[in-house]
């Protein structure tokens, strides 16, 4: 036996369904869900079409006239690689110098700290 609250809920839901069905909007009425298998088939067909297109495009670009780069492009690449190697070497040298400077600064600070502590110790004793 349903309780009074469940009866009220069922009445409310029935009333709301009637209001929605009067609006005539198929999204609001209780229409059967779309066929899941049909949706999956359509998705698979789209994925196959995309895959075939991308395969065809990759084959077109690999067979194109740009498969061998012109000499000017090859020279430009070599120049850029040399420039990047040089900058990388300069950067690593700067970093090495910075590390040495920081280590020396830390040693100086630590020596000064020890000296100050020793002086304070002897003054207090």
Strand content: under 5%
Distance between the termini: 94 Å
How many E-type strands? Answer: 0
Helix content: over 70%
Structural class: mainly alpha
SSE order: HHH
Protein name: Clathrin light chain
Family: Belongs to the clathrin light chain family.
Biased composition (Basic and acidic residues): 11-20
Membrane topology: Peripheral membrane protein
Name its key features.
cytoplasmic vesicle, flat, mainly alpha, Clathrin_L-chain, structural molecule activity, membrane, 125 residues
Give a written overview of the molecule.
This is Clathrin light chain. It comes from Oopsacas minuta. It is found in: Cytoplasmic vesicle membrane; Membrane, Coated pit. With about 120 residues, this protein is an all-alpha fold. Among the domains are: about 30 residues; about 50 residues. The protein contains three helices and no strands. The longest helix has about 55 residues. About 0% of the residues are buried. The model has no long low-confidence stretch (mean pLDDT about 80).
């Amino acid at each position: 036996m349903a309780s009074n609250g469940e009866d009220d809920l069922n009445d409310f839901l029935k009333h709301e369904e009637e209001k929605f069905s009067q609006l005539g909007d198929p999204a609001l009425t209780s229409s059967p869900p779309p066929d899941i298998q049909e949706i999956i088939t359509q998705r698979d067909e789209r994925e196959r079409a995309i895959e075939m297109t991308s395969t065809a495009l990759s084959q077109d670009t690999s067979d194109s006239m740009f498969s061998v780069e012109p000499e000017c492009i090859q020279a430009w690449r070599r120049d850029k690689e040399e420039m990047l190697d040089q900058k990388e070497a300069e950067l690593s040298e700067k970093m090495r110098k910075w590390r040495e400077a920081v280590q020396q600064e830390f040693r100086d600070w630590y020596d000064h700290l020890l000296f100050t502590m020793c002086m304070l110790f002897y003054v207090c004793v």
